[in-house]
Design brief:
alpha/beta, seven-stranded mixed sheet, three-stranded mixed sheet, 18% strand
């Protein structure tokens, strides 16, 4: 075989692979074999079986003699049927630089890569605001499966309800509030931050999963409940919010809590956009809708949420809570972020 990088029809660098075999071996068979060993982004976007690998007089690979590969499809073309499928095919063709893409083809089998997927995600997010997370594209790699997923979510969207958690009355005692900005920030040391991040190098958990799980644990202990409900923004670029409902009744250790949080984040399809908040928020008394943000916190969030927790990581981990000081007690908010900081320090 020979593998090279060259520009495809869209002008982007792509991986081209050429292989020989004693008998005709379909591209789809090669892809199925490679998927067992490689992540999607490392599998060649363009593949072709040829009679022999061309070489120069010196016995080296003759790159110029390798033929172009125009047909990236691994199976028969099946046209889109629904409006959603037609929209997705148009977007995928635009991003990949193809004339048509079968609805049963995987995005990665027709020239797609991580960079093209990010472009597709940006365009699709404008067509269907708040419906999709980036991870959904890996769970639904074909136009057919992604279109069905989008249509199902559109059907359920009008029945969506943003849920809150009951807080003790002292959380709302604002008589002692002295701060106008309603912000508390806590910076971990650089050494402790590096220790926490280096502990994640085995790849079992990510930093967002760990930080969210720690927050869930603190809420569970503070509010004395095994059922924690938080609103969660992982990507502040798009402000797509997922409602996480985590039942900790089966957790026997903090690792169990991280696993439950990880599973809830990866499987959650209960998402909404910030513009949809007022449509979906339910009425409640002495309840609080908490937002947890993996990234910098904007004061704009306080127009909707009474309390917003978040963290950021540059050379060190910074914890921040912003709250509406006319509604939430600064003393209680400070106590909550202090417990959260202690939990993070414990993990280090």
């Amino acid at each position: 075989c020979a593998v090279i990088a060259r520009n495809d029809a869209s002008g982007d660098k792509a991986i081209y692979a050429y292989y020989t075999a004693e008998s005709e071996t379909p591209v789809i068979q090669i892809r199925q074999m490679l998927r067992k060993e490689l992540p999607n982004y490392m599998i060649p976007a363009y593949m072709m079986q040829i009679e022999a690998i061309p070489v120069t007089k010196n016995g080296k690979l003759d790159r110029r003699a390798l033929p172009g590969i125009e047909n990236k499809a691994a199976s028969e073309y099946i046209a889109p049927c629904t409006d959603t499928e037609k929209i997705l095919e148009r977007i995928y063709c635009e991003v990949i630089g193809a004339e048509m893409i079968s609805v049963k083809e995987s995005f990665f089998d027709v020239g797609g890569d991580s960079l093209k997927l990010m472009r597709a995600y940006t365009i699709i997010n404008k067509e269907y605001p708040s419906l999709l997370r980036f991870v959904d594209f890996f769970s639904h790699p074909t136009i057919e499966s992604l279109a069905r997923f989008i249509d199902d979510k559109l059907t359920k969207k009008d029945n969506h309800v943003i849920k809150s958690m009951s807080f003790p009355l002292e959380m709302f005692d604002t008589t002692l509030n002295t701060e106008d900005d309603g912000q508390i920030k806590y910076n971990l040391s650089k050494e402790l931050s590096e220790s926490i991040v280096s502990g994640l190098e085995d790849g079992q958990f990510t930093l967002p999963e760990l930080m969210t799980a720690a927050f869930v644990f603190v809420l569970s202990r503070t509010l004395e409940t095994e059922n924690v409900i938080i609103q969660y923004i992982c990507d502040t670029s798009y402000n797509i919010t997922a409602q996480l409902e985590i039942d900790l009744s089966s957790a026997e250790s903090f690792e169990d809590i991280v696993l439950l949080t990880k599973r809830c984040i990866s499987e959650c399809s209960d998402t909404y956009s910030q513009t949809d908040y007022n449509r979906f928020i339910g009425e409640s008394i002495n309840n609080n809708v908490l937002l947890f943000v993996c990234g910098d916190i904007s004061y704009e969030y306080l127009e909707k949420y009474d309390m917003v927790f978040g963290y950021s990581y540059d050379d060190r981990i910074s914890l921040t809570v912003r709250f509406n000081s006319d509604v939430v007690s600064s003393k209680e908010a400070e106590s909550l972020v202090s417990q959260y900081a202690q939990m993070i320090e414990y993990l280090g």
